[in-house]
């Protein structure tokens, strides 16, 4: 198998061989972070006062989206300062819609020649066997919120990044780029009923949010005031662009694509990122190797994903909180039929006439 991918014996990754783990740039000292202070809150203009969902989560309305207040200065800097490269790939999602799985699949497929999935032990183990997926691919709004964009600039091409922002909040060079301008975007959406159940379980793993009620979170999603919402506008912004410019945005569905057709989705993803699998690779089981490494069972079993925390904004989330069930239909474990019907009807009404649905 290793011969199919190429030589992975050197830690120095050849230029163009695939994305490099973001955390490695920090750990080995090749990209010392030049701290740039984000714009102060006074620069935000006439924003409404914070709307508090919980004492630890204050939201601000910004350009049609409810943003956590600690992200707003970083989002503004991201919009102002980000310079995309032609081979950048941005992974986008609303939280708890398959983000971690998409990170793992995209990185493993794109970097398979530098880091073959079979590399299991020793000094040259695959990055996902020694790093949490969220340490491998950076969340750009947090990078800019922390004033650490120098690390992002230092990453060799091709760069792999992720965002939870709607398409309408991406920097103008990304959102307005025409065909051939590069900087591709991959979006994954999920049934909002499954998303809200997964999000509730996730938030309760934080000591700052452990008392949040499911009814409270459910109502926030339904009325469009959840963090990064409205959820329907979030998904619609990427779907519309994927229809208009399929060469720029790849739109994936968690249930239909990632769960039911994982191998085919990996092939589509690799091709879209400019790293298609050759016939020889496919015959040798390269796609299956990517799927196996990134499977929920394998990721949950890795020691690096069991202990410790991962910073998510102002929350410290247990590493294992990112790997729960990975199934479709889990909404029925918490949601009554009346709640499910209410959410379905609200989303159906909000999307009426757009041509898009979550079903």
UniProtKB/TrEMBL annotation:
What Enzyme Commission number(s) appear in the record?
2.8.2.-
Q: Which residues form the Sulfotransferase domain?
A: 87-354
Q: Could you tell me the superkingdom of the organism this chain comes from?
A: Eukaryota
Which Gene3D superfamilies does the record match to this protein? P-loop containing nucleotide triphosphate hydrolases
* GO MF annotation: an example: transferase activity
Q: Which InterPro entries match?
A: P-loop_NTPase (IPR027417), Sulfotransferase_dom (IPR000863)
Q: Where is this region: Disordered?
A: 1-48
Q: Which UniProt keywords apply?
A: Transferase
> What family name appears in the similarity comment?
Belongs to the sulfotransferase 1 family.
* The protein's name in its UniProt record: Sulfotransferase
Source organism of this protein record: Urochloa decumbens
């Amino acid at each position: 198998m290793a011969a199919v991918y190429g030589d992975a014996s050197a830690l120095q990754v050849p230029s163009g061989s695939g994305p490099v783990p973001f955390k490695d740039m920090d750990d080995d000292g090749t990209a010392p972070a030049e701290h740039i202070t984000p714009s102060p809150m006074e620069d935000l203009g006439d924003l409404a006062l914070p709307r508090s969902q919980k004492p630890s989560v204050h939201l601000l309305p910004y350009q049609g989206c409810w943003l956590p207040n600690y992200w707003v200065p970083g989002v503004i800097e991201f919009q102002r300062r980000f310079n995309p490269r032609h081979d950048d790939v941005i992974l986008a999602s609303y939280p708890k819609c398959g983000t971690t799985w998409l990170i793992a699949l995209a990185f493993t497929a794109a970097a398979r020649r530098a880091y073959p999935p079979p590399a299991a032990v020793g000094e040259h183990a695959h990055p996902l066997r020694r790093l949490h997926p969220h340490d491998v691919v950076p969340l750009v709004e947090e990078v800019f919120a922390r004033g650490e964009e120098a690390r992002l600039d230092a990453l060799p091409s091709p760069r792999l990044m992720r965002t939870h922002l709607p398409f309408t909040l991406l920097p103008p060079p990304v959102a307005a780029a025409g065909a051939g301008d590069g900087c591709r975007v991959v979006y994954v959406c999920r049934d909002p009923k499954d998303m809200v159940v997964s999000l509730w379980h996730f938030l309760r793993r934080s000591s700052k949010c452990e008392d949040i009620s499911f009814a409270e979170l459910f109502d926030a999603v339904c009325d469009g005031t959840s963090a990064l919402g409205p959820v329907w506008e979030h998904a619609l912004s990427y779907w519309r662009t994927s229809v208009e410019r399929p060469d720029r945005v790849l739109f994936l569905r968690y249930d239909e694509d990632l769960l039911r057709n994982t191998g085919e989705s990996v092939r589509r993803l690799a091709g879209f990122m400019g790293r298609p699998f050759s016939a020889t690779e496919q015959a040798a089981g390269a796609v299956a190797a990517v799927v196996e490494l990134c499977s929920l069972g394998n990721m949950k079993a890795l020691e690096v994903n069991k202990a410790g925390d991962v910073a998510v904004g102002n929350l410290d989330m247990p590493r294992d909180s990112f790997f729960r069930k990975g199934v479709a239909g889990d909404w029925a474990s918490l949601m009554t039929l009346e709640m499910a019907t209410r959410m379905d009807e609200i989303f159906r009404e909000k999307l009426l006439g757009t041509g898009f649905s979550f079903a």
